Known about the structure:
Number of domains: 1
CATH architecture: Beta Barrel
Structural class: mainly beta
Strand content: 25-35%
Number of strands: 10
Amino acid sequence: MRILLLSLLVSLLGTSCQSIKASQPKVTNGIEEPDFPYVVQIQMNGRSYCTGSFLNDSLLLTAAHCVDRASFVKFGNVSVESEFIFIHPRWPSGGESCKLPRDPRYDLAYVKFPKGTYSGPTFGKVATQSARPNEEIKIVGFGNSLITPFDRFCYIPRAKDDDGH
Length: 165
C-alpha cells in the first residue's frame, strides 16, 4: 500500500470561516502518530487552527485558509514571524475571503520562515502522483483541536473526483 502524507486534507476537512471551538475532537477516530515530526500544529490566538508540513528547514506547506490573515505562525512552543506567505493566486484572501467562492483545489500556501526555523530529523514530501480511487491514504494532522503535543492520523479511502477518476 502506498502511503501519501496529505496534511492539507486535514486542514481542508475541518476548518471554515466560522469561529473555531476548542472543544472539537482532534482527528475523528484518529490515533496518536509520533512518526511525522515535520507535521506541526499552526496556532492563532492561542487555539489550534490548522496543520502544516515543513518541506525543508524554513518552508512550510499548509492550506491557504490557514494563513490568509496571519503574519506569524506558532507551532509547538515556537512562535515565529514569517518572512513571506505565498497563497495560490486563485485562492480568494483578505477580508472578503469568506464571502467569495472557494475552490479547494487552490487552498494551498507556502510560508517562508527564517533559515533554520525547523530542525527536526526529517522533512515532508509532496506527493508526485495522485492516489487511485478507493486506495487508502494516510492523513496526518491536527485540524480543529485542543492544543496537544501529539498529532493524529487516520486512513481514508480516496474518493472519485467529478470526472469519475
